[in-house]
Structure formats: structure tokens, C-alpha cells
## 1
Amino acid sequence: EAGVAQSPRYKIIEKRQSVAFWCNPISGHATLYWYQQILGQGPKLLIQFQNNGVVDDSQLPKDRFSAERLKGVDSTLKIQPAKLEDSAVYLCASSLGRGTGITSTNTEAFFGQGTRLTVV
Amino acid sequence: AQSVTQLGSHVSVSEGALVLLRCNYSSSVPPYLFWYVQYPNQGLQLLLKYTSAATLVKGINGFEAEFKKSETSFHLTKPSAHMSDAAEYFCAVSYTGNQFYFGTGTSLTVIP
């Protein structure tokens, strides 16, 4: 079974520039997550999709970050314009994610290798 | 708010010694609990998970964790550390089975 694919693996940009990351989840996984992992910290959820709808984007800095999941499969995360503090690893994850609570069939998130963003 | 606390951002053990990484959750409702491992420049890999079945959970690479409701803990252990165990370990919690919140991580160093 193919895992979660992310590209690019590394990206270096100057502040105020724009950048986009791409994620292809595991086939059949309804839920897709984007996490931001700053060096020395745990992953922080930015946005969660269920199919092509947003479930939670409460921690997404919406003035500069945007994400979409057209057709409920692949997803892109964009930063425009980037700031120095956006330097981090951006992790994409997916899970089966059918429903929530005690009827949920989802009890594991599978992660991609991440995109390491450096803003200079 | 749902959260997990990992005590000790850095843990060092000698090769062959017991590994103990601590995780406590903050909720009156028992959640799903997970341990993930992250090797340098890699994504997170699931080690084991607790989903309200057996309280002692066995995972990959000889790791196990015990859910203790009275202590709101889910500590990760391994009887004998290997050099290959050196990595970053993250405890995570989920209450809906569909959203995951991670601790700040514990970096494990194994000394030859």
C-alpha cells in the first residue's frame, strides 16, 4: 500500500514570497490533515478535511495560509506571503476518518515525510 | 482543552537499559492514545495505540505502553534500549477518533 506522498521535500524562499505544498493521501482515506512542526516542538494541527469539506481550521492563520482539497483527494497548502516564523516542517497525514465518536472507524493517522520550509 | 503532557524533553539511556518515556493526558473521559516515533528528516510512524481495549498495549520494535486511568497516564517503555531506538517520540491523544493532538515530544538518546 502506497503511503502519504508529499512534495517538495525541501523548500527555501525569501520572506514575503509565496509557496505551495502538495499532498496525496492514502487511497480511500476520507480525512486529510496538515500539521506544522516547528523545530523542537510537536506537530500542530493547521487544518483538517473530511473529504473535500473543512472540519477544523481553527489554528490556520487565515490571513496568509490557505488550503484546499478539491475532489476530496489531493490537497495543497499555500502560504502567501511567508514570514520568517513560518520556517517549519509541514506534515500531511491521512486517516480513514469515517464519522466521529464511538462509531468512528478511524483510529490512526498515517504521515508523509513532510516538507521542510526555510524562510530567509 | 484536549492535551497531552510529555515529561522530559530529553531522555538518555545506556544501550540495554530500560526505556521509560512519560505521557499524561488531561481529561475525565478516557481518550484514544498513541505513541509515534520520528526519525531525523522523516514523518511520524505509529508505534502503538490504545483504543479502550486492553490497557497494556504492545507495539512495534519491542515497545509497549500501559493505560492507567487513575493516573491519566500512558507511559511508553522498552525493556532494553537499542542504538536504533534513538529518535523523537510523540504522545498523541484523540477524543473523537478523528482529531489528533500531539505532545511536545521527547528526544531519546541511546549511549553505547
Note: Chain A has a mean pLDDT of 89.
## 2
Amino acid sequence: DTGVSQDPRHKITKRGQNVTFRCDPISEHNRLYWYRQTLGQGPEFLTYFQNEAQLEKSRLLSDRFSAERPKGSFSTLEIQRTEQGDSAMYLCASSPGLGGEKLFFGSGTQLSVL
Amino acid sequence: AQSVTQPDIHITVSEGASLELRCNYSYGATPYLFWYVQSPGQGLQLLLKYFSGDTLVQGIKGFEAEFKRSQSSFNLRKPSVHWSDAAEYFCAVGVEGSARQLTFGSGTQLTVLP
């Protein structure tokens, strides 16, 4: 069990640029989640995959955000035309199919939009 | 929609003292309730969870929590705090039958004095 890994750890970008984050879940975990956390707040749910299928999306997820999990393993989260309000920590989590209530979180990608 | 309130933004206790972190939730049906801990630079780690049954649940690191339906509360307790417990603590609620979309509180930052 190597844990959930996220890349990069930090990303600084200029407003209007596109960014992409990667998440590698714990192997054999078929559920994968993306959350966003801003300073002083708890994480907010963005989206959820079961294997390669994106089953749930939050209303927070605007059209500029897209997430994929093409082979049911790693996932990417892309933000197009970034805005300063997108600055946050983006957290990925995974869980097994059985006992899936326990989420294992990665350390996150800190995005700063200048 | 469900919601979680953690009334205490910051709590300071002395090492060896007892601890209680408050959590109040709002949800119409039977909630799934969780406590997570987040240390700087690390992902969130599940401390304990409540789904049904015994309202006093035991977790890792000597933590316990009690579900009180009449008060819509799920307070976290520890009889004797260690310096390594200093971290941010998040209470979360999931809808019945699912832990996929967790709603987190805004967190309580715990400082432990030597």
C-alpha cells in the first residue's frame, strides 16, 4: 500500500492558463474522488469515479473543470482558463469497492493562480 | 442538503489534558458521520466513523466519538492529549447509504501546549 499520490505538489500559473493535475490511487481501489479545499475551510466534493465511469459531479464543478479516469486507474483533473478563485488545494482520494466508506486521501496539489 | 458545523475554529489544550471537539450536523435521515485529521503537508486520515449501532465509536490513536441523535451531534473526545495530536480536525457527514459525497465542516485547529 503506497498510498494515494498526487502530482504536482504545487502549481503556480497565470490567470487564463490551463492546468492539469494527476492522481494515482491505491492500486485495486476502484473508487476515486476529487475534492477542493480552500484556506480555512473543509474539503468540498467535486466529483467521483467508479472505475472509469464518472458517476457524480458537484454543482461546484463548472464547465472549465474536467476530470477523467480513462483506464480506471489514475485520474486527471484539468482546469481550463484558470481564474484567481480557482486557487485552492485539490485533493484526491480513493477507496476500495468493499468498505468503500473509508477514503484514503493524497497530500493534494496546491494551485496558485496569479 | 446536509451540513456540518464545527463551532470551535481553534482549541488549545495542555498535553495530558482531556479533549472534546464539537460537531453538529444537519441531515434529514440517518447520517454517516466521520472524523478526519489533517496534519500539515499530509492528507486527511480517517479517525473513526459512525453508520449505525452503538452510538459510542472507538477510533485510532485513542479517539472516540459519541453520536447523539437528539442533539444532532457527533463530538470527538480523547482522555489524554499528546503533543503529536496537534493538527486540524474535520467532521464530515455522508448521505445515507453513501459515503461518496462527504460534506465537511470547516475544521477545528488543535494546538497542544507542553
Note: DSSP finds no helices and eleven strands in chain A.
